[in-house]
Amino acid sequence: MRTVTEFPHETREIENVFIPMRDGARLAARLWMPVDAEQRPVPAVLEYIPYRKRDSSRARDDLNHPYLAGHGYVCARVDLRGSGDSDGVMVDEYREQEHEDAEDVIAWLAEQPWCDGSVGMMGISWGGFNSLQLAARRPPALKAVISASATDDLYVDNMHYMGGCLLADNLSEATVMFAFNSLPPDPQIVGDRWREMWHERLEGSGLWLETWLEHQRRDDYWKPASVCEDYSQVGCPVMAVGGWADGYTNAIFRLMENLDVPRKGLIGPWGHKYPHIGVPGPAIGFLQEVVRWWDHWLKGADTGIMDEPMVRAWMQDSVSPASSYADRPGRWIAEDRWPSPRIEEREYALRGHHLEEGAADEPGREVSVLSPLSVGMFAGKWASYAAVPDLPFDQREEDGGALFFETPELTEELEIFGLPSCELEVSADRPVAQLAVRLSDVAPSGEATRVTYGVLNLTHRDGSAEPQPLEPGRKYRVEVPLNGVAQSFPAGHRLRLSVSTSYWPLIWPAPDAATVTLTTGTSRLLLPVRPPREEDAHLHEFGEPEAAEPLAVTDLAPGAHHWRVTRDLATDESVLEVVNDQGEFLIDETGSRIRRATDEWYSFRWNDVTSVRGETRTVRRVEREDWGALITTRTILTSTPTEFVIDAQLDAHELDAERGDPRVHSQSWSRRIPRDLV
After folding, report:
1. Is residue 546 a part of any domain in this protein?
2. Quick one: pLDDT at residue 386?
3. Which residues of 227-245 are buried (b: 16+ CB within 10 A; e: fewer)?
């Protein structure tokens, strides 16, 4: 990445300003702006997230916001109520209080003497979610948004549930927020109130995992902040950004199809990262594109960005399977509108053990599968969050416990772009059963690289609002949507469709081991086949990744990142261990020492679905010579055929050498939550 030090505008930074809310609370903001903004007001750009502007998000903020300020914007990085240095307690995500506060922040920004009255909002993940949500609330000053790695539907394409199945990421995300919500504000910002504010958070934030498990179907809990409930409410232009290695990309297709405002979609090979720091690469000059977007919508400049195709995506070339990639080979493609009339839906019937191009209109034989719980141990993460080996490995490791169907060797290259799906005729021998469906690229060597996948809790076959148990032995026709993808299959390769009844730990197993019987001949795979487009060779070229000067830090202790699968043959226990230890470092500017580590374990014994267990532990430490805090959390999720069982612990220590680093708060939770056809 190229570091930019000279910009069109000289800038200044304000470390903290408190923004008043309608109820008297104050939110903490860090600001960057041109030095002459009060004489020549400029638009403002808001990023509004709970990840602690003072330390945890500081490195990323320093790359992005000074860059945008240098191009003539006021940038505001605001801590949500109950996070970082803001007042209050955070008790959940995307609730009404968060949105009301955002409206107050936007209005405050627009009224400042250095702002010309126009505001944009941008963010990735949480900040991408609430950017979309605020666009649907239409605060008058909000003129456009950029939403990266986010979704329009909090239930369907979020880290909690997928296809009505419980995601293990539900546990890991709850763990992340458990740790963040337990950290104190910085006394250099909030003063002597810091200890009082900290204890209010420790005692009041609660166990979010419990809340999320209490809503196992798509009920009214998920709907208020899901903009898909009424796309017409979105009242300003939207740029939606994502990556094929992320978990949120499907929403981009829905937003392009259903929004009635000017919009752009951008999908690269990346995981859960902004595209200028995207992994797998290639990363792109995303901040240059952000400036073009804001210049068009906030300054009225003709940047040409709206003359370009609606959707731009990275067509991935075939690669050998690996759990991480520095880069994914491919090329940029584009479509002028979505859905694209150029893309053909091609049907492949499941016959025998084959995928045959043509209509699935003749019943074939019935084949049954009861997958071992080991299917899924090499599936990787639902979303690739960091530069750790969290992508799916060779699917031959998984396919021994699945049904699979293959095409003959392709006689010519095949390219797909969009949302594949499967329509299957199935029955089960239990009232609750689930399917995981994977599409793989099989090389002549036999290596199988997963291209996309989908999962379905069969009790959600007619939707997730009112799931219904299966009638054992009865045949149902179900659709299993697969995640969106752009993929090239070379001549000589084969397509493989794999179907299993387990995909642990990506999804939590059904209450009882269920055998699913599939009727071939009437079951089919539908692929969005995209013909070549000459215009792709003449697309606007992305620049080299650029950013402002990186945050100055001093490394104090190395980190460690690994995924490790083990199996003890004496006990029949298998364990996936995920270590994300970010080490310890000093932020030179503030003098704060930061320690962050998260460990996860997902285990099972042979084929005992009651033995599955997820455990997470976190360590968070922030300190200076005169102040500090150490937070440790532990969360364990298990289940019986009728309940989910949560056991959790939180310990908080105030770091004070004279007093021996006393523990100032300790709390434990033990909760049992009925399973609701999950």
Report:
1. no
2. 61
3. bbeebeebebbbbbbbbbb
